[in-house]
């Protein structure tokens, strides 16, 4: 088939589908500014009455304890975990496009609720609802992108998903910096901006087609039953329409591609041991379908590898650094300008991600993981050393000093910021794009969908644990102790990559599956 001219609509569909990741990254970016002093959190100089759980008023601030800050920061992740379980069971029944439309709706409702309700419980409910949208979006987007993309751009588009998330983080940092200058109500505007972006996402998704491969799966499934001729014909026509939009090709070429897809689907169905391997294309009538979803655990090596990568990318601290970036810059002595360097972090992450996506097929997965984690370990060693020289601005013992009063000697603050930039760059060279790329490669086809859901669930669960634990550990261990723990976990990650992670560059999925069985 002549490929020239069809990529415009593929990129158009990618732009709106990947906006779900953009909105996830945006919330990560604004989080540290939302809970910063002078925003949701009362400033140290504030002497007026603080808001309570249910007190009414738009000008309120709150005395948030470190556990409360951790809970607020992790609410969206709790929602994402909950919706990931729903995706594990029902996503393939409703389709990729509908999943993204549900995600966009939840994004809109959650952001407006958190920004508009003048009580603290409204923030909690809004962020939890927003998180439900994150779970749907993170499950549907990579599958949809892979299914609509021509072979020659599929790898690049799937990898670009990470770059879109990082772009969202950068925009979140930028929004946090600019909205913080508007005063104590700036955090509401930060959150509300995500609702506007979600509305644009919803409008765009309305104009993109359903995944042709998903429709082909439904055609093949219905074709095996009786009395479903009309449904088969309608879904076949929808698949042809979707391919015509995406490929911008002649009717004959589209028919030929659809027939190829249908033949591949029929071969795949014939290879399944039972109907459970086909994810929920019929009504969910039997609880035994959960058993079919758990077949992913019959493959221990890829499951250990996949879950190990997503856990290690969380416990080495990078998400915690992003969620609490503004506080770290305050400790480094940047005072009221702490939000501005966060914008620099977002820009550095974006540049590092784009370079990695460009070179991933040249240097391989293992090498990039080694380089990225080594950069993180070096940066953590510098951060640990820098903060070991910290002191309390009020003159009390450092072990009794609140984290907001910790400062660094002149010169050490600059070293800490440089180390943070190196740290996030290392993550984007290694864990950021490579972990999810490998997860998409290492599982057999018949369990790839359910295994992907398990990886997402483990990822969000470990992210929740780190987000809640970080402010508590920051107060208990001081920054130097916290970064020392992350340093030890980064060294453990290097050992994990050396002993467990294979190189998959240049190998077919069948070759990778054979490696995983050894």
TrEMBL record:
One of the record's GO molecular function terms: transmembrane transporter activity
Membrane topology: Multi-pass membrane protein
GO cellular component: membrane
Cellular location(s): Membrane
Pfam families named among the record's database cross-references: Sugar_tr (PF00083)
Keywords in alphabetical order: Membrane, Transmembrane, Transmembrane helix, Transport
Catalyzed reactions per annotation: D-mannose(out) = D-mannose(in); D-galactose(in) = D-galactose(out); D-fructose(out) = D-fructose(in); D-xylose(out) = D-xylose(in)
Main location: membrane
GO BP term (any one): D-glucose transmembrane transport
Residues in Major facilitator superfamily (MFS) profile domain copies: 13-505
Presence of the UniProt keyword Metal-binding in the record: no
Residue intervals passing through the bilayer: 7-28, 71-90, 102-121, 127-146, 158-177, 189-208, 303-326, 338-360, 367-387, 413-439, 451-474, 480-501
Homology family: Belongs to the major facilitator superfamily. Sugar transporter (TC 2.A.1.1) family.
Subunit field text: Homodimer.
Protein name, entry field: Hexose transporter 1
Organism listed in the record: Alexandrium monilatum
């Amino acid at each position: 088939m002549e490929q020239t001219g069809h990529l415009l609509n593929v990129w158009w569909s990618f732009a709106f589908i990947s906006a779900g990741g953009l909105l996830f990254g945006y919330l990560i970016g604004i989080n540290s500014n939302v809970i910063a002093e002078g925003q949701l959190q009362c400033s140290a100089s504030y002497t007026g009455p603080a808001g309570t759980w249910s007190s009414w008023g738009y000008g309120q601030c709150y005395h948030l304890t470190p556990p409360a800050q951790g809970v607020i920061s992790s609410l969206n992740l709790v929602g994402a975990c909950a919706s990931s379980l729903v995706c594990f069971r029902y996503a393939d029944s409703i389709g990729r496009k509908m999943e993204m439309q549900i995600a966009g709706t939840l994004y809109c409702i959650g952001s407006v609720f958190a920004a508009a309700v003048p009580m603290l419980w409204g923030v909690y409910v809004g962020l939890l609802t927003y998180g439900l949208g994150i779970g749907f979006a993170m499950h549907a987007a990579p599958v949809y992108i892979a299914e609509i993309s021509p072979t020659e751009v599929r790898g690049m588009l799937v990898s670009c998903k990470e770059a879109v998330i990082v772009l969202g983080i950068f925009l979140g940092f930028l929004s946090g910096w600019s909205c913080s200058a508007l005063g104590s109500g700036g955090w509401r505007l930060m959150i509300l901006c995500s609702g506007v972006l979600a509305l644009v996402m919803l409008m765009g998704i309305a104009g993109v087609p359903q995944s042709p491969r998903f429709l082909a799966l439904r055609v093949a499934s219905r074709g095996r039953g009786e009395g479903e001729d009309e449904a088969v014909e309608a879904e076949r026509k929808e698949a042809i329409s979707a391919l015509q939009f995406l490929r911008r090709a002649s009717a004959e070429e589209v028919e030929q591609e659809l027939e190829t897809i249908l033949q591949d689907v029929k071969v795949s169905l014939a290879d399944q041991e039972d109907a459970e391997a086909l994810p929920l294309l019929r009504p969910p009538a039997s609880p035994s379908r959960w058993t079919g979803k758990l077949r992913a655990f019959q493959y221990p090596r890829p499951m250990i590898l996949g879950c190990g990568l997503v856990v290690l990318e969380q416990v080495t601290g990078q998400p915690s650094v992003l969620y609490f970036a503004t506080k770290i810059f305050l400790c480094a002595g940047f005072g009221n300008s702490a939000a501005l360097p966060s914008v620099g972090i977002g820009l550095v992450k974006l540049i590092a991600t784009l370079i990695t996506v460009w070179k991933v097929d040249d240097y391989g997965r293992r090498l990039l993981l080694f380089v990225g984690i080594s950069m993180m370990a070096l940066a953590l060693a510098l951060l640990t050393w820098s903060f070991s020289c910290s002191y309390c601005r009020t003159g009390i013992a450092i072990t009794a000093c609140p984290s907001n009063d910790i400062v660094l000697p002149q010169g050490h603050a600059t070293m800490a910021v440089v180390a943070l930039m190196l740290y996030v760059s290392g993550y984007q060279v290694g864990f950021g794009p490579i972990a999810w790329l490998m997860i998409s490669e290492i599982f057999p086809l018949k369990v790839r969908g359910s295994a992907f859901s398990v990886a997402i669930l483990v990822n969000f669960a470990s992210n929740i644990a780190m987000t809640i634990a970080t402010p508590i550990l920051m107060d208990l261990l001081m920054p130097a102790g916290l970064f020392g723990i992350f340093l030890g976990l980064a060294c453990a990650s290097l050992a994990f990559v050396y002993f467990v992670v294979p190189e998959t560059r240049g190998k077919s999925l069948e070759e990778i599956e054979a490696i995983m069985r050894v």
